Every structure is written in C-alpha cells, then in structure tokens.
C-alpha cells in the first residue's frame, strides 16, 4: 500500500523530481566522468608503454644519489660515459648495445610558434634503428643538421619532408632539415624530435655521454643478464631489468594520473555535496506541500515508520534514476575531455570502461540522495494525524535556539579543523582542511535561516521603492520560508565560497610577490624561459657581452643531500646575486670558494647552523664533499633558503642549466632592453622582463590557476542554479492560488514575472554573500597560515568579489526565467479554483 | 420546450432600473469533450443594473461561479458576448483584460482572498499599488471605518479570523471604487453572525455609496440581502425575483432543487 503511494507520488511529481534528479545527475556525471577519463588515459598509456623498450633486457644507468623533488620533470641522474657501452658489449649474452640520449627539444612551427602544450613534454632524442619508434616516411637523421619529427608535430608545425625547420633547444636554436617523419601513435600532446647520436649528445646532453645504455639479450634471461652485467659495473652505475624499467615508467605516469584523478574527484564530490542541499530542499518542500495527505495517511492508520519509508522510497527512486543518467552523462563528459586532450592522431579516441565508475556513481548518487532526504522524511513522520482536519497546517519547526546552537557548534568546530589543516597538523592535513570546510558549510547552512531574515530585509529593502508592490511581494516571499530560502542560498554559497577563497589567496599572492619583487629584486631585467626545463647558461654569457650590460648572472637550481636529507639549493655568481636579489648578509661573507654554502636566518636557526659549521653533503653525481657555512643572510624571497657556491655546483653538474638570468645595465630603458633582447636572438624561448613585467607574468600564471579552479567549480555553481530553479518552480506550484488571486485583482503577467525574478535574485545574492563571507574568511586563514612561506600580505579583491555578488544576482535572474514564465502562463481561474 | 423563463435582455430590464453595469448576451460555456462534456452555461443572457445588489442563486453545480467568472473576464466563453460597461471583453488581450480587472472590477472570493505575506492594509490597497495609483485617503478611511478594521490594519491574514479576513477582502474590493464588484459565496466559510455582518456591509455599500455588486450564493438568507435574485439551474437562467426575502427565495428554490425539473 505504502509502496503504491510512493510510486504514485513519483509519477505525479515527475517534473519536480526530474529537477531534483538533475542535481544528482550533474554531480555524479563529474565523478563518473573523472573515472572513465582517467581509466581511459591509463589504458592508453599502457598501450603506449607496451611498445617502449620492449626489446630491452637490461638497462644500465647512473645511480640516483639525490632524490629528485616530486615537482621536477628532469631526471637528476647524471649521464654515463659512452665508453661504458663498449665494455658492456663484451659481457656474455649481450646481443646488442644501444646508448640513449634524451633532453629538451621542441619544434618551432612555420608560423614562428613553438609546438608545445603545457603538460606533456617536448622530447629530443638520438635516433636508434630498431628502437621504440619507426620511420613513417623519409629516412633516419644523419649528420649535424638533420632531424626527424613525429607525425602530429609535423602537421601542427606545418612542415613537410625536406623543409628547413627551426629547433628550439636549451642551447642556441638550430635550423635543420627535416628528413624523416616518426610514427609514434598518440602522444597526447608530447612531441618527439630525433637527431643522430653525435648530434643529440652535442645538443641535448654532453658529447661522449649517454643518459642510459640499454642491452638486448642474445637469449639469456633478463635477471641473469642483469646480475652478470652488474658485476662489471663501476660503483656509481646500476643495472635494472627491462621489466623493471618499464614498470618505473608506468609508475611515473600512474602517479600523475592518480593525482589528476584525485583532483577531479574532489571537485566532483564538491558538486555532489552541493546537490545534497538541493535534494534536501526539494524533499522538504514536497513533504510540506503534502502535509495534509501525509496526515491523512497517518489518520487512517499508517505508522510513522511507514510515512518515513514512503518518502525514503521516493528518494531511492530519484537516486537510482539520477545516478543512472549521471553515469551516462559521465561517459559524455569523459569523451569531451578526451577530445580536448587529443592531438588528432589516430588511436587517440576510445573510452575504457571498468566497473569502478559504475560503483562510484550509484554509491555516491544513491547515498547522497538518501542522506539528504532522511531529515525531511523524519519531519514528515512527525506530522500529527490531526493536521489532516485542520485548515492552516504548518510543519513543526525546530526551535531557533537549538538551530543557532547546532549551527554555531558545527561552524566553530569546522573552522578549528580548517585552521589545524592549514597548520599542517595530523597525518592528513588536506583531508582535515576538506572536512573542516565541509563542516563550516553545513554549520552556516544551519544558521542561514536565522541570518536570512535580517539580511534579506536589508537586501530587499529597496525593492518596494524601486519595483513597487511586486518588489515588496518578492521580498516577503523570500522571507516567508527561511529554511527554504536558506537551503537554496546555501547551495550557491558553496561554489562561490571556494571561488572567492581562491581569489583572496590569489590576490594576496600577487600582492606578496609584488612586494617581494619591489623589495628584493634588484636586477634591472630578469630572463626566463617560456618552455620547460632550464636553458643554456651560454645565453646569459651572450647577454653579458651586449652593449650597456654591466652584469648578467645565470641562476641555477638543484638538489643536494645535506646531512643525508634532500635540500634544494640555488647557485650562481655571488656578485650578481648580491645585487640582483638585494642579498643582505647578517654574518659571514659571500666569498664561497669551492665549498661554501650560505643559508638564510630561518634555516640557520632551525638547523642550528653557525658561520663556520661544516656539513657533510652529497651531490647528484654521487660525489661527497664537506660544505662550509660561509654566511647567513636575511630571509630572501628571490633566493630561498640556501645558496651554494657556483664552483661547487658546476663541478658536480654534467649539463648545467640556468632557470633564470639576472641582468644589470648601465641605464635601464628601451635601448638597453633591446640590446639584451638582441643578444638573445638565438633563444626565442627566452623572455626579458623588467620589474613590472616580472610581476605581471607571476600574476598571469596565478590567474591561470584561478581560471582552472573556477572552471572546475562551475559545475557546483550550475547545480546551485538548478536548485534555485527548483525552489522557485515548487514555490510557484505551492502558491498557485495566491498567484491566481494576484492575477484576478489585476497583477499583470509582467509584474508577476518580475516578482518571481526579484525573489530569486534576493535569494541568490544572499547565497553569494554567505559564500563570499566564508570565502574571504577561508582565504584569510590560508594566507595567515602561509604567511611565513612568503604569503605575507592579505589582500581582498574587492572588485572581483563585488562582481561575484552581481554574478549571483544574474544567476538568480536566469534561474527565475522558467519558473516566472510558468507562473505567468498559469490560468487565473485554475489558480483560484485549486483545492 | 426550452428556456421557458424570461431570459431575454429586454425581459430582464426593469422599468426605472437604469443603465447596465454589465451584461452577457447568449453566452455558452462548455467544459470537456465527448462523454465528459459539461454544458456549464447554456445561451445565457443577463443584464446587471448599475448601483444595485444582484444575487445569483442556484443549486451547486448550476453554473453560478462559471457565470460570474465569465462576466468578470476571468474565464473565456465559447460563444456569445460579455460587456463590462460598454467594453466587450472578447476583444481584449490579456494585458487589457488585466488592466480592466485592476481598475474597474473588485473581487471577493469564498476563501483565500488575501495575500498571506501582506498586512491587512497592504491587502486592501493592493490593486491600487499594483496600478501605481495613490489611494483616495478620505475614501480609504471611510471604507476601513465602515468595515471596522482600523485596529487590525497591521495584522497579517493568518492573525485574522475568517470573518475579519472577508471584511478585508470586501474593503479591498471597495477601496478602488470599481464599477462592479463580484463576490462568489463571500459568506460560504463564515458562521451566520460574521456572514450577516459582511452581507449588511455589502448591502450598505450599494445603498449609501451606489456600488454595483453581483453576488453568487446558494444560501437563501444571503440572497435576501440583495435587490434582485437571478435563479440559475443547469446553466440556464430560469427565473428572477425582485425584493426577495429568505422565505420567498427558499420557496422558489424548492422547485428547482432537482436537476432537470425545469427541462421536463
Ligand atoms: N474547470 C472545469 N472543468 C470541467 N468542468 C467544470 C469546470 N469548472 C466547472 N465545471 C463544471 O461546470 C458546472 C458548473 O460549475 P460551477 O460554475 O462551479 O457551479 P456552481 O458554482 O454553481 O456550483 C459543474 O457541472 C462543474 O462540474
Ligand atoms: Mg461555485
């Protein structure tokens, strides 16, 4: 019997439930899409790597003395001498020996633009016959001025066989003849450029060296061969099996993919969380509208449990339908993402389906619907049977004091977790932060009905004056059911809170960096590379020769082990650094010699370093050396915490690459800048920036991050907009009679539509204000927590936040279009006659 | 044998009754199609004289509300013509119809007359506020005092009794000095004392202010407050009565009580 009631209700309220299901659909789609997309990527990489190094039995390479940082793309292994290859050839069971050279090389297209995407690498290598790739057309490169390029990059660059192509390198740009097209399959945006071995060594690495040496077996098993080879190797070189090598490659990619997966998943779950508010609200409204019917059921003998179950049954239906459609939409989303990432070569399409997205979709979609509908269903069960007989029925409302208590407690507790999370407490600070933010959202949502009254009074205060009676009615309608208004606004609050927090952190970062640049950047120009990795210090040398240039300093970055722990160090000519970074010594001197190390005051303090302390250190080439603390400097944002003697750095680095150059000129101005740029003619990827351009380029980079996160949060905001539509549509149905009355006494359709639009706007703006309030607090907390890491200025982007409030209003306006249209179309008479 | 009762416009016009505030000519209204077809109004012709209190009586389902809705421009008709003053309604689009209702017509319904978010006073001035017209304060004060709502003006409908709510509705209908007021069973939900208050109030507004009122009711006691009663059965006007009393109306009603009596 109750099942029948549930089913009837599901079919009777198709439209409302469809809108509710939509909020489940969108969140689930993001979750499902994330899994399908990353699964597909993972499968494609597997296919890609199935071919790579398939003939390799054993790989010989230098040992990694210093772990490379997780954010560095370049291997920190030093190269091995080519002579080792000849030794290895003599080992029994080795059929063939291949030396590999790899490094940075990119193709500059016919239009002068470098073919490169932000993520995937631009790989340069030595061409090996019978290696990982085949030549599709043309032939293998030979000699110092021939190159082969992969198919997709050829197309993008607009080159054909025989064309002269400009190749961007870490050293000077080369012009070479394209003699071959490499068949690679889908590289997902990565580019491949190949030279003959000697040329590759010269351009990418170091003449006479390989990155690693791969051995082909004459039939001996790979472990046996590895052990045999290992016995002949010097101490700083190691041998691993081909299988182990392939696994390492896969692991790297898997790590990258799982990071991407977690990132996307987080935003998917945020969207689902926002959807929960909508579901909660819709079910609350459905229960309220059916109070009399439910009371009747109770009056004729249905138990509380049965009423609860009837409502939960509806939720289950909505959850299942929503999850199913969400899963399908996720397939579409994944296909879209893939199309976006595709480089146009064949094999770049095709999705991989596993059971994971299916399980996640239903688990997330159904669970969230049931949890959200649980509270309304409990309220439904509390309806007294006598309500069936009464005319003016109202659901029992929980006391305001209790609401205030629960809401404040949740908010405070959540805020505590946020602070703890930012302070890096516990084993999982990010998780702590996430849970804390979630609790704050729920806490504020619980408080929102109390807040809504005064806030909406104020916001809607001008309505009567501006819009007359429809304005006043709109304000009163928004005030009428604070719980409903609050839940609707809260859904919008979440997305806007996160977007505002990101903006607050962003503008604080821009301000902090700007101040650091002003205070500590003493160079007239900075030279940076637009492409990945570093660039050849020869470029800086060339700048040093330019007219009007007093001093050009190449800055290096690297990792060393100090006391057995990895530490990141900067290095370069001390005279240039002292001036360019306005280095202020607190003690000791900048005379570093071959073993000197400078540390900043914080590092000195926390490690108890004194001028003259000696520290055991190991370099990436495996060499060990005692370093001497030569001096301590004042905290410096340009330099960071450690400065290593340039002499020591260069001595232990096979192919030194600058990450930045600092230039002092006699008279700053257009002429001197042009002189510097002129010296860099061969390095089109290098940019010369003055102080304000440095700030601008930081801001641009940060802005890109903000845009990225904003796009990911857009789904949450869209779901919230669906929630506003839902609330208004339901309110219109609920107020059918009242709307009829208004129409009967002469309210025009236009006035009616305006009334609904204004109600929507005021609710949305309320949500936007709540969100921006939380966002500013959250952003300020993050800034405060990171103040000692350089984020020392709190700057609230007032203009941007005002834009978000306006945007909230616009969302409200758009969300109201359809409900308002429906209300306007309502038959006056039916509206009056509704029983 | 159809329409034995005097239903022609000429037949209804009383000598000395003056001009008409509203009239319908040969209007029909049919709901549904096929088996479900209901003829709610069957070629009805009626004139509503100005400054008079006209009651429309009839058993439940006889078409009273439908007739009123059609006359007031709330509902469309399938054939015939409706005039409010000298404006023919079928020519008006929704915009003009809305403006006409707002400026020239007042309504009192059986229930749910008021906007719950507005106070009593705001409800009373609602049609004028919508129109952007300033209420005539003297007149407004007069109306409020007549209905005796002065101490309740700041209250919301939920804080008012049923009788008080209906008085607010009447005050709203009168406040704009409409050319005609339509009231559909305005006392249907009230106890007899509150009902009597409302009815004498309507009656007085006709006598003292010259207001035109059309009231739909099925209660003979309510009809007795009017100047003239029109009897409706099965969508047709079957009789009329001037200067009715409750007894006379009840007597007449008995004859119509059973559907189909007049048709046989
Ligand atoms: N919207 C409608 N749809 C179908 N039939 C209707 C509708 N409104 C009224 N009716 C029918 O028209 C007839 C007249 O109704 P109504 O004017 O409401 O009667 P009264 O007000 O006299 O009780 C009744 O038979 C009723 O069932
Ligand atoms: Mg009726």
TrEMBL record, chain B:
Species this chain originates from: Actinomadura alba
Keywords of the record: ATP-binding, Nucleotide-binding, Transport
Gene3D superfamilies: P-loop containing nucleotide triphosphate hydrolases
Matches recorded under Pfam families: ABC_tran (PF00005)
ABC transporter domain segment(s): 22-259
Record flagged with keyword Ribosomal protein: no
GO molecular function, one term: ATP binding
Name by which UniProt lists this protein: ABC transporter ATP-binding protein
